[in-house]
Write a structure and sequence with these properties.
2 domains, 373 residues, alpha/beta, 7-stranded mixed beta sheet, binds zinc ion, globular, Rossmann fold
Length: 373
Amino acid sequence: MDYRRKIFAHRNPYDLQNTDSLFFDAVKENLRFHERHCPEYARILRHMDFHTDCLKSVSDLYKIPPIPTLFFKSHELYSIPKDRLMYNVTSSGTGGRQSHVGFDRGSLYHALRMVLGTFSYYRLISPHPTNYIVLGYEPSDHNRMGAVKTAYGVTKLAPALNREYALKDTGDGYRLNMEGVKNALIRYERMRFPVRFMGFPAYMYFLVKDLKESNIRLKLHKKSKVFLAGGWKKFFSEKVDKNELYRMIEETLGIGEENCKEFFGAVEHPIVYCDCKNHHFHVPVYSRVLIRDLNTLEPVENGKVGLLNLITPLVESVPLLSVITDDLAVMRDGKACGCSIASPYFEILGRAGLQDVKTCAAEASELMGGIKV
Ligand SMILES: [Zn+2]
């Protein structure tokens, strides 16, 4: 029985209630697959004294040992032969080490179903020819970062007329192209087609600030959209909150807050989280999210701050079933949002401090007891 197929083809991306048992079956299926095909993962499970039989329902998912994303930065774990990997990506890794993850054809197929399901739900797939501004790297052979591939992939959701990149490929590196972006925007406004932006919130902020200081006020097509991905706290030395950024986008580009969407995801957890109209990341049917205590790693109740534990049965090539990040986050009841989505949502509050991350990583490696992988 292919439970994963059913989950990733489910019509309503937020129907957690009716998919709990299906999700649970998909998790068990995925767990058994990795246990059989990845000896290092099987060793980790054994070392943690974990047995698949202890999983009786979706409320037992916390028992699956979560692997720290930091672990994937120094270890490559695969559950299929490497020659069956179709798509290799690395995490953005600002400064530190990067995770390398490869995906097989089946995982990519289901990921695509998820992307289409999520984007259709928010009506983000459009037949209208569109001009793009990518506030990030131009794709190239010498860059395999997941964020670059994702940004390029997003330019397929509406037919592309033109794409302008803030970081242009020079063949062996990149150069900043903000002038090119500003000129493209002025051209795009005259063309009267929708414009879509994608990039880090910090880059979007620098662009609108630059436009404002240059006294450029545009009124882009009313179907224009801004897609933001990649975290807030990491890049901001200036304190700017989301509302201020949305206000500046409206002022300089004529794009209202309702057309600004934010996304969350990670190379080690390739699920697309798209914010609702109140800018919250509700948990979709494709994953479950737990918050764990910083010291004990025990799950905490909604409203309490802890480390983000992300669970999905999407990937068969790498045991990414349950991963724990160094993001500090808090979970809230769906009702607290006020949009019509009932599933709970999480807020990312920032990165755990270096000391905390070290503690967590040390604990994790201690938990894994010097396993040689
Ligand atoms: Zn909401």
